[in-house]
Amino acid sequence: MRYLAYIFVLCCIINCSSTDPLIEDDSTTIDSVYFPPIDSDEWESESVSNLNWDTNALQPLLDFLEQKNSKSFIILYNGKIVVENYFNNHTLESSWYWASAGKTLTTALTGIAANEGLLDIDAKISDYIGDGWTDAPTEKENLITVKHLLSMTSGLDDSMGQGVSNEDLTYVADAGSRWAYHNVYKKLQDVVASTSNSTWNNYFNSSLKTKIGMTGAWIENSDFNVYWSNARSMARFGLLMANQGNWDGEQIIPADFLSDATNTSQNLNKSYGYLWWLNGKSSYRLPQSQFEFTGSLIPSAPDDMYAALGRDDQKIYVIPSKKLVVIRMGNAADDSNFALSNFDDEFWIKIKALIN
């Protein structure tokens, strides 16, 4: 009798485990993030139809991109390529400049260096590259920290052009009291090079580029360093960001640092993190202006999106809620611009038609 009772209870447990939604079903697998190999051009793909996206919306999107002077376009879903197209004589192997979208590479290296104990985000820049790196009075220069350069709140004059030599970096306001889009962030590359006892290029290559299989190079152009690569290298970096700095099990950029980098970094421009633009905030400021605009940065895009935005519409969009990374490279879609343009909103209307 006891044996029969045991069998009855066991059958009930088995039956409940297969039907009760609160009990885990081992047959259900989690869709894990895909990472392309770092030593080859192989990259797995996923189809638009398998994702139940609107296949009828794809060609209008591609036509729009071609008309808007695009050269390359990639959509990743959970790491896999869903859409990859090249236009206007551009190919998979072609390199193009990241422009200010490459600022976020500097963010990444700053976070890596901080994690290695090479620098402190709250320390003043003068601690690492000496006094007199600006034309500001010493007491004002010594207010400027690593974090101020990451958040564009150095207080230096943004109307002096893009140069970063001493005479170009003049005082306007105390650090932390004014947000202004300024090329002075490049001094972070000098800080990283100094504290790592290396060069910026060598530290970048060993700490980030080779670890995720990027190609490309930094090219000095007048007063600033610009990164050039193919679109897939940009997509690799976007994928690293989407996975919170972790590449296939290796934590390359500290996750807590990236959390700070992709959230509001100061109270002057709610839509700006550490050289990353943030969507879904209540207000934003733009380069070369002190005007505060009300509303979201890109109204048609998901609220949780953050973006690397470069001159003439170089784009990395990361959307955690949708498991998406979107890349666009090319010439300016319309008029020349510093980062954000009308193209962003129009672009996202077309993307939403595809993915919704």
From TrEMBL:
The keyword Glycoprotein does not apply. Its EC number is 3.-.-.-. Residues 72-335 form the Beta-lactamase-related domain. It comes from the Bacteria. Keywords: Hydrolase. The keyword Hydrolase applies. Transmembrane segments: none annotated. GO terms for molecular function: hydrolase activity. This is Serine hydrolase domain-containing protein.
